[in-house]
Each structure stands twice: as structure tokens, then as C-alpha cells.
# Entry
Amino acid sequence: MKAKYRFILAIGVLGLLMTGPFVLTAILLFVDAKEAERSALIELLVPRLPLGATITIMGFVLGMVVLRGLFQQYVHGLSRMAETLRLMLGANRNFRVTSDGPLEVREFARAANDLAQQRDELLNDVEAQIARAKATVEEEKNRLAALMSELTLGVIVCNLDGRVLLYNNRARLQFKALSQGPTSMSGGALIGLGRSIFSILERGQIVHSLDIIRNRLDKSRADASAHFITTTRNGQLIRAQIAPVLASRAATDGVDDPDDQLSISGYVLTIENITRNFEREAERDQVLQSLTDGTRAALGNLRAAVETLIDTPDMEAEYRDRFTRVIADEAEAMSQRLEATMSRFADSLKTRWPLEDVLGIDILAAASQRISDRIALPVKNEDIDESVWMRVDSFSLIQAITFLAARMQEHHAIRELRMRLSTEGKMAFVDLIWSGAPVSSETLYAWELEPMNVGADTSPLTLRDVIDRHGGEIWYQREKNAHRAYFRLVLPVAETPTMETDEQTAQVRRNSRPEYYDFDLFAALGAESGLDRKLTDLVYSIFDTETTGLEPSNGDEIIQIGAVRAVNNRMLRQEVFDQIIDPGIPLKPAGIPIHGITEDMVRGQPTLDVVLPSFHEFCAETVLVAHNAAFDMRFLQIKESSLGLRFNQPVLDTLLLSAVIHPNQEAHSLESIAQRMGVNVVGRHTALGDAFVTGEIFLKMIPLLAEQNIHTLRQALEASQKTYYARVTY
# Structure
């Protein structure tokens, strides 16, 4: 029985104890007395009944007040203290019991705080020893994470169920670029820990490849891998190589077998987008086909005309002129057709030399060092645009710059070379500037065609080869006012790496190591959110919304959605969804200071009918978690019918769970819960910031729920619905 009900029962018993003896005595006296005595007793008692009743009621009320005060000080105060002690034992070790109430309770609180301090010192010592023991393993994990994140090839590791256990940054960027529409726009890529690879790649091809690998393993073949090419949903071509992750059957089944054999416990996918390569090959084939079809007839006419002229040496002048014009016309037509074809497919016909994206300032720094080492010519920079990325062959370009500097020093005795870097459109300009004698066009032309030899360094390439390799140009210009001249190398600009647009998201990511792997997930990880599955085994999408107001049924709209995924009891801060939305209605001035989103920020952003399907895909096969989830879910549910979506997965509410865990606490706001559980509130009243805070709170709630014998999703949902706050609707 709850303490509150015991208190009510105690008051009832007290009332009976206070009034019962008087009533019983009066009844006994009245029954045993004679008629005359009864009359005298009535005459004696009736005038005094109001006074007696008043004294009895006052005494009863006074007793209730005293008992209620004692209840608040001892019973309720000790219950609240018990919740605080559980917090110290679990979610927030730094939390301490407040020393208030009567002397005995304060003494108990001080003793509890002293014990907590001693416990913390012991735990700190144990944790320090564990940390030292795990240092080597953690270092190896960090090395693996760094290695995987820097690979230029996309790598994904999956278990046999197709659940992603590891992926590197290149794979994330590739699939993010391949995602359709707002999924990539909003920051949520389809790839993620615990997600199914079959949502991106065709299941049948992977299963078929694994069958090939098993067959090769059974035959003890060394090439236990397979390749396939597939298309994504937006038509991109992907080349994939799949290799097995082998484990002993004893390790897999937990059985000690002396004749143990290896079995496949997962697989490694390496992926490469070959769409552009395929398109270039198709364009080259089209060039050959165009040249073949376009010149066959012309060559036939030319051959016939030439043979006729050869076979008829005494042909009349008029006929000879006619055949000569045929030859001239066909040759001119072939020339025009060839030039048109070469112009149309110029990009495809350039030398296929591997170019890489390089930061322009790095190229200039390397070239300056090489010039200083080879020819001892001072080099200075001026007007450098440090944000320029170029797509170049670094080695040959540095050779070309060094070659030009050497020729200038040799033939024009320059004392200093200055370099400048700028950009315009899709072109980057590298300028080599000097003061002194100008260079003639004939000299530059000669330099372009000679091998780039500088001292002991030799190269078969010419300056023109390097320029053509990049599809660029070299110009010679003079600055007459400054009495200077310069060579300008025109080179292709690379696409600047995408930067985070949201400073809150960027800040959170800068402060955390990318979590692209979790080998604990090699055990079968089901994606379904079965109600009887343990809370520790589920995958969660923790989300929050910012809105124009608090009345979804009266026209208020969502203006921002933020979400983060949680897998294996940790938040994946790299796997987020964050999107501002144009609500299509004016923002309420009163709400702008709260969420900080202005009219200018929502103008031009995608509307909810574009963003919501993307968010629905982001949180598929997960349990939704939010604070005061009824509010956020109401906004989503109103749009379900018009968009053909259903958010039918289970929903957990940290507001209700807080009332389950701490029923004696008066405040259950996000800030209050965060303070109780020792969670730092960062980015409050931004959708993604609130989602992060909610996620940290929720993960700390799971062990506290377990202490109350709430282990499964069904138990958490049922306990939530029994709380007072579950009655609130929107």
C-alpha cells in the first residue's frame, strides 16, 4: 500500500480512537440508567453537546495537522530521499541528499551523503584501474577508427542479418550523395549502425555472393570473395566487392569442438561509385561510333573519285574538275564532322590520368619548398585564397611550376618569385610573378615543348603535356603599372568538401569522436521493436520538434525536426536528422525568442510534405523517444493521412518515465530531469539540441527502470500509462 493511502487510513483510525470511547461511554450510561436518570442525563448533556462537539472537532483537526506535518517531514521526506539515493547509486553519482526537515532526518541525510562520498572514492579508484586496463584496447579501437575513416574506399562490415556493424566516413559520404531528396539534404544518411544494408543494396545479390563465397571456402580456394555491380534507387552504379568475416563455429555456437571449422559470421563490403566512369566509357564508345558511321560513306565517295581519276588519266577537264570538287567537298565535310565530334566529347577524350582533390595552398607550399631546394630561388606568397581546392596531378604540377621557375632564373636572372592563388567560377588561377625582363611568346612556346628537366631531375613530360593532362591553359600577362609579369596556370577547381550548415550540429560533432563501429553488434541484432524485447536491445530514434505554437489542432505547424539514433545503449552523434522547415504560415513573434528561428531562416526551406517522408525513413524500424511525446506525435499524426505515412512504431516518453522512476518529485521538465541526472543541457530549444539532451536522459533511465523490475518495452509502456501525465492530450 502506498504511503499516501496508509496516511488516510491512519487519520481514520485516529478519529475512531478519539471519538469512540466518548460515544461508547455515553451509550452504556444511557442504556443502564433509569428513566429519571436518563431524563436528568439528557438535560445535563444536551446543552453541553455543541461545546463538546466543537472541542472534539478542533482536537481532531489539530491532530490531523500534526499528523500531516509529521507525514511530510518523515514519510514523504524519507520517500523523496530514497529516490535521491537511487539517483546517487545510478544515474548521477554527484547528486547529494538535501539536508532539511527534522533533526533525525537531517542526521540521516548527512550519514547518507558521507556514505555516498566514501562510495565515490572507492568507485573512482576502481574505475581508474579499469581505465588503465582498457587503455590498450581503446588505443587499438582508436587506431582502427582512424584507419577506417581515412580510407579512400567505402568500407562497410555487416553481420549475417545484414545489420551494419562498421562503416567508414567514405562510405557514409558516398551513400549520402546517392540518397534521394531530403534524406541527404537533412543530414540523415541511409547508412548507420544497426541499420539494414538491404535498404540500400539488393538482398538477392548479396545472398548470391555469399553462396559463391561459401562454395569457394568449401573447396579451400584462396579467392574467397565475390564482386557484383548494382544500381541504387536513384540510378547510380555501384561496384561492390564482398569478403567474408570468418569465425570458428565454437566461437559462434559456444561449443568446444576439437575439429572446429571456420564459418561466416559476417561480411565486408567495399563500394565504389562507377557511374561517372561508366558514363565516360559510354561517351567514348559514342565517339567511335559517330566517327565510324560518319566517315564510312565519305571515305567511300573519296575512294571512288580517286580511283576514277587514276583509272582515267585522259579525262576531260570538266569531268576532272567535278571529281576534284567531290574530293574537296567530302574532305571538308569529314574535317567539320571530326571537329564537331571532338568538340562535343572533349572532356571524355582527355587523357585518363588520375587526378585528386588537393587544397591549393598545399600545392604552393610544396612547390615553394622544391624551388628552394633545387634552384635556391626565394619564393613568397601574395593574395592567397586558402579555401581553393583544385583537382590536379600534384607531382606533375609541382614539376611544371619548378621548371618554369628554373627557366626564368636561368634566362632572365630573376631574384625572387611570387606566387598567387585565386579562383573564378570552375577555374583556379596559379600565378608565377616576377619583376624584370618580359618573356616573348616564342620563348614560352619553346618552353612548353621541351622536357621538364631541372638539374638532376629529369622528366619525359613537357609543360604542354601537364597542361593538357589537366584540361587547362597557360597564359603570359604583364602588369605594366607594377612593372611585373606573370605566368598564369589555369587549372580545374575541385568541389569544396561539404561543410556543416548548422553550427549546433557542427559543434557537437567536433567535440565527439566519430562512432562508426560497434563490434558488439556481431550477435544477431533484430531491427523489429518487439514489445517483449529488452530495452537494452532496442534501436531508438530520439527526436524533438520546434513549432510555431502549442496548438497543433488549431493550425500550428512544425518548423524544425531534430533526431539522433541510439544503438547498443549509446547515442550515435554522427547519425542525426536536422532540418528547418518552411511552415507556410507566419511565425508567431512570441515564439521566436524561445526557439530562435526567424522568418528569414525558414524562407526557402523545404516544406513538411518533403521533409516528413525523409524523417519517416530515418526512424524506420526503431522505437521513437521524445520528451512530452504526446505533443510532438500529435503534430506528426495530423499529417499522416495527407502524406500517406504512418508512425506506428512504439513511442516512449521521458516525461512519463520520469514520473515512473521518481513519483515523489514535483518537477518533470526536461531541465529538472537533466539536473537530477547530471546531464548538461546544451542547445536548449533547438530540435537537435533537445534531442541530444533527451537521449542522454533516456539512456540513464534504462538502468533505473531495471531497478523497478521494468526491463522490456511492454513493461515501460504499461508503467508510463499508469502515471498522471499520461492523461494529457493535445
